[in-house]
Structure of Putative addiction module antidote:
Amino acid sequence: MELKITRIGNSLGVILPRDLLTRLKLDKGDSVFLTETSEGYRLSPYDPAFAEQMQTARDLMRKRRNTVHELAK
């Protein structure tokens, strides 16, 4: 999909087509994250840093399952 850079006020921006916004489940005011990969760039509605933090938390809770269970009482 080719997107053109256009002037938006005093800035430059890219207009995302409605079908792309629907597939990404994005709406006005939502944030997107641009991540550099070995193949180029990836645009995603999900923060990769947050996803990594959540995975670390899941691993810790799995490792300390009994402690988490006791704290939940």
